[in-house]
Structures are given as C-alpha cells and as structure tokens.
Amino acid sequence: MIDETEIRAAVLRVLHSVAPDVDLDRLDPARDLRRQTDLDSFDFIRFIVGLHVELGVDVPEDAYGELDTVDRTVAYLGKTLRTSQPPTV
Amino acid sequence: MTDYLMPSLGADMEDGRVVEWFVHPGDTVRRGDIVGVVDTAKGAIEIEIWLDGVVREIVVEPGTKVRVGALLLRLESPGNESPQPTAAPVAATAAPVPAPPAPEPRGLDDASKSQGPPTPASALAEPRASPAARREAKRRGVDLGAVRGSGPRGAIVLGDLGVSVEGTAAETPAVDRLTAMRKAIAAAMARSKREIPHYYLATAVNMRVALEWLESRNEGRRPEDRMLPVTLFLKAVATAAGEFGEFNGHWVEGALKPSESVHVGLAISLRGGGLVAPAIRDTDRRSLEDLAKAVTDLVLRAREGRLRSSEMTEATLTVTSLGDRGVETVFGVIYPPQVAIVGFGRMTVRASVESGVVSAVPVVDVTLSGDHRATDGHRGGLFLQEIADRLQRPGEL
Q1: A45 vs B223: CB contact, 8 Å cut-off?
Q2: What is the predicted pLDDT for the residue at B166?
Q3: Which region holds residue B85: left if phi is over 0, alpha if psi is between -120 and 50, else beta?
Q4: Is pLDDT above 50 for B120?
Q5: What is the DSSP letter of A63?
Q6: pLDDT at residue B117 above 60?
Q7: Per the CB < 8 Å rule, is B324 touching A41?
Q8: Partner of B313 at 20 to 30 A CA spacing, among A31, B9, B352, B391?
Q9: Domain holding A63: CATH number?
C-alpha cells in the first residue's frame, strides 16, 4: 500500500510537470494551491490527468474543490486509494 | 520568381529570428505547408507558405534575425504572382513586393530542369529533415534514417536529435524573451489606446442551463475529455458575430472591413508572463466537440511555443475568458486592427430574482469592448444580448 509520503511526492512531481517554473520548496502545503502556483483551468486539468497517470486515481469533477491545497489533495488521494483497489499498474 | 518575406505575425512584431527551415532548394511546397520556424517575442512560431511553388533559394540562414518584410526565400511558382497578403496596417512596414519579372528566354539545360516533374521531398530515399537538423546530424555522425521525425510531414527537426532549441545560437534567452514580449505588448496596446476609441458594456448572464448541460455532457468522461465553459463562450460569440458582422473584422485605412469568416482569437496567458491570442479558424462552423479539442490543443501549443503563423494573424475578433479563477469582470483592450473583444469573468453564484422569487444562480459577467469608430453602443448591447441568449440554449450551439 502506498503511503502518505509517496502520495505527496507524486503530487509534487505532477505539479512540477504542469508548472515547471514554480519553486516547490516555497509552496505552503496548507495554503491555496492554485493561487500559489497560478494554475488556470487548463493547467488544473493537466494536474488531474497527471494524478491519474501517476496514482491511478480518477478525480470526478465534483471533487475538484477538495483539491485546493497540497495537504487536502494528499488527504483526498489517500482516502480514495484506501477505499478502492490499489491500481494495477 | 516570387519572394517569400518575413511575415508579420501580429501588429506588434518588428523582427524575427529564423530558427530552422524544413525545406531545401528544389523542394515542392504547397500553400499552407509549414516551411520553417521563426523565433519571435511571442515564442517560436511555425511559418506557413502562402502559395504553391518550388523553393529556389534560401536567403536567410538559421540563426539570423531579420526585420518584418525581409526576403527569406525565393520561389518559382506556376503563374501565381499575387503579392504576399499581409494584414493591411502592417503592409506599410513590409518591403515592397517586386513586380513580376518578364518571362526570360531559357537555355535548354535550364528549361529541362525547371520543366521536369518536380520531385516531392517526401519521395526522396533520404529521410525528410530540416537543413539545420541535417547539418547537426552530419556534425555528430548521426544516421538520420534511425531518427523519428516530429516536424511537418514527419520531417526530422533539431529537437528530434536531442538538441534543445534553447541550446542553439538561434534561441532567445527566457529573460530577453520576456522583455521582448513586454515591449511587443506595450507597442500593440499603446497603439490600441492611442487609435481606438473604446466603449465598454457589461451584462450578467445566467449560466444555470449551460452548466447543467456541461455537467451531463461531462459525466463519466475522463478529465482530459471534459468540456470547459470557454468552449460554449467561444461558440456563442462566434455564432452571434455571424449576425453582428460589424464586430467581426478589421479597421483598415479609415473604414471597417468586415470578415466573411469568423476566426475567434483566444487570449491565453503564458506561464512566466505575457500573453498570446491565437485564432481558431472558422470558430462558428465547428461543432462543440471539435471546438473543445481545438481549444485544448491551442492552449498546449501556445504554452510550448508551437503556434502557426496563420494563427497569429487571422483573428477577426478576440475572446478573453478568466475561467474559474480571477476577478468577476474583465474589460479587454482591443487588439488592432480588430474592432472588438468580448470578456468573460469568473463565474460566481449570485442571488437572482425570477418571477418574484429569489434564488441562487451561477452567473458570469460578459463584457464587450467595442471600437466606437466601427460600431455604437446600441448595437454592442444587442450583440451582447445575442451572446447571452445563445448561452441559454447550449444544446443548439
């Protein structure tokens, strides 16, 4: 089972691929993610797609609101991964 | 012979640096073919040829920066000697197109050479490759046959050889690019505010039906296939512009020149600063599904710096949409020589009164910045109302 540290690392990897100009070390995981990284609607979709590729989690549109900080994104993904089958990748 | 000049890729472009050619002397080209890459303040742009012909001479070598209107290529074209079409306000800065030369008598050798069937580059046994890629491969002893090309028609380009275009002499450093883009935006926007007497209108549009339609359309789809509201906005503006032709076109030499086609430019902000507003061809005639794909593709290419020259020059009207973040209301500045820009702010839930009942509804502020030389506020208001009405019937868009 994937642990929280790995999920967090995966989230930051995806974030880096979508917004390579953002300094991840300066990102506050408890503050608004999109405001800090300036992700627009298209970037955010690439972020969601990237999470699907990395972790096999499909985030439905009505759950986008739960992915508003790094901490909450990690929590959402952890919760989803625990309640579903681990991805067979 | 016909001269192919450095195209003007927008009212704000002064010069460009040739990064790479995809053609060699002797290649047959067709109208619309991508023949090379030019580095501009707005990123690397793939430039298209505007007529059929055979390339005779490459005048400007990769790595060279030249002004708009400078001679890039000489072509032999079958009879078609029409002058290079450029947006009218830009034509003044372009070099004059020489008159077609009188037919000259040819020697036998020459005649047989030029009248023999031209060999399309793709028919050659050698793989298609840009001259810059060919040189680099030779320098490093790389077999081009073993390289997969990602350029036009499968041509091998510099990037396919692992050469980051950023590492070549042709590249503009990121800081310089940002400075150049700031200057380009400054020039275009200063001209806009100097020459165009803007008027501004705004109206709040109920998005309940449109969002419900999008929700049911997107249900069960993968994130990359989900349609965003901007697709509906673009289609509503483009089809409304079909009925309000005076907002779709260019202001040229003291008069409105309406466009028969509707190519909506979409303002896209670039990470790190600046923005571009490339055109989506025939926005009004595309299906919503097709338009959604075109928008995703355009945003990605704008960010990667792979826009095409036609996309930089064809827009007849611009849309700026802030998406799900940012402020509630945006008034755009018209990009000359266009005559209007439609803005969509961030959607918000507001109290709305319908038939005396208060309810919470999603609302978007739609604005119009119009050129008062071309139109008046009364027509502008009707145009905005038409856009709003169309957004109430998303299924018919």
Answers
A1: yes
A2: 43
A3: beta
A4: no
A5: G
A6: no
A7: yes
A8: B391
A9: 1.10.1200
Contact pairs from chain A to chain B, CB under 8 Å = 36
Give the model's pLDDT for residue B101: 40
Q: Which CATH architecture has domain B196-396?
A: 2-Layer Sandwich (3.30)
Please tell me which residue of chain A has the smallest CA distance to B292: A42
The pLDDT of residue B111 is 38
Q: Which chain B residues contact residue A38 at CB under 8 A?
A: 271
Higher pLDDT, B180 or B229: B229
Answer yes or no: is pLDDT of B375 > 90: yes
> Which residues have a Cβ under 8 Å from the Cβ of B48 and sit 6 or more positions away?
B32, B33, B34, B35, B308, B309, B310
CA B266 – CA B276 distance, rounded (Å): 8
The dihedral of CA B297, B300, B304, B308: what is its sign?
A: positive
Domain encompassing residue A10: 4-21+30-83
Interface test with A, best of B232, B275, B299 (most A CBs within 10 A): B299
| pLDDT tens sequence across B12-27 | 788 889 988 999 999 9
Residue B7: what pLDDT? 87
